[in-house]
């Protein structure tokens, strides 16, 4: 794995799965990972915000988001550098049509990649986020809107595909109960 220096490696102390998560299913597909030591915030290491207030929870359909991950870039290969892609939020019914056997509901976010750029195998658990401009004129923050749950199987193919993310907003009560 290649990251820009200086990078930090952390171990995992504890993983807390959502109590309603069922392995292999898309419902409640979220976990909290406790690291083995405190993260030292620096100019290149900074926390992402959660959408805890109304201002940061307001997003529109057809809004662009970023996703990042270490998943495959075609049908077989995993990248050696972290990948970042822009996706567009879509209505849930669009994902319900695309993923006919999955039960997409209000706890999900539906998004669409563009051309060959979208989530792929190995990206699960990664963030979907955006840069939010707060009321304070010069305050911009990355806000995590969801967690990658599943995408299609068109890795590296030139066709748009839908993706499903677990909504952080709908999971906030569980997150705050288990973090604070």
From TrEMBL:
Keywords for the protein's UniProt record, in alphabetical order: Calcium, Disulfide bond, Hydrolase, Metal-binding, Protease, Serine protease, Zymogen
A biological process term (GO) from this entry: proteolysis
SMART domains attached to this UniProt entry: Tryp_SPc
CDD domains per the UniProt record, alphabetical: Tryp_SPc (cd00190)
InterPro entries tied to this protein: Peptidase_S1_PA (IPR009003), Peptidase_S1_PA_chymotrypsin (IPR043504), Peptidase_S1A (IPR001314), Ser/Thr_Proteases_Immune/Dev (IPR051487), Trypsin_dom (IPR001254)
Record-annotated Peptidase S1 domain positions: 1-180
GO molecular function: metal ion binding; serine-type endopeptidase activity
Top-rank taxon, per record: Eukaryota
TM spans (from-to): none
Family: Belongs to the peptidase S1 family. CLIP subfamily.
Name assigned to this protein: Peptidase S1 domain-containing protein
Species assigned in the record: Drosophila gunungcola (fruit fly)
